[in-house]
Amino acid sequence: MTWKKAERKLRKQHRKGFNSLCILGAWILWKHRNACVFEGVSPNLQVAVQAFKEESHLWQLSGAKRLTALRLEMGVVQA
After folding, report:
1. Is 42:34 a contact under the CB 8 Å cutoff?
2. What is the dihedral of CA 71, 33, 51, 10, to 10 degrees?
């Protein structure tokens, strides 16, 4: 399923939070990939998931209101 198709299935008030989650996920994967390629870090899903949780928390603290609302209403990204 594409990002847009998944987004359309959500209620309107959850779409911005969902988009933030997708962007954050891509950002974390990119950073982890770069660490593997350029710093010799071994690929590790648990490390990437933990980085996602930590970064998500920081985004929420810095004002990502829709991300916070999505987390609270749908139980997404439990830290």
Report:
1. no
2. 0
Report mean pLDDT in 10-residue bins for the chain, 79 residues.
Answer: 86 86 94 97 95 90 80 51
Indicate the helix (H) or strand (E) that contains 27: helix 12-39
CA-based nearest residue to 18, from 75, 67, 68, 77: 67
Secondary structure tally for the chain: helices H, strands E: 4, 0
**Token pair listed for 41:** 């870090």
Q: What is the pTM of this model?
A: 0.78
Q: What is the DSSP letter of 61?
A: H
pLDDT value of residue 79: 43
As a whole number of angstroms, the distance between CA 32 and CA 13 comes to 30
Tokens at residue 40, please? 């010799």
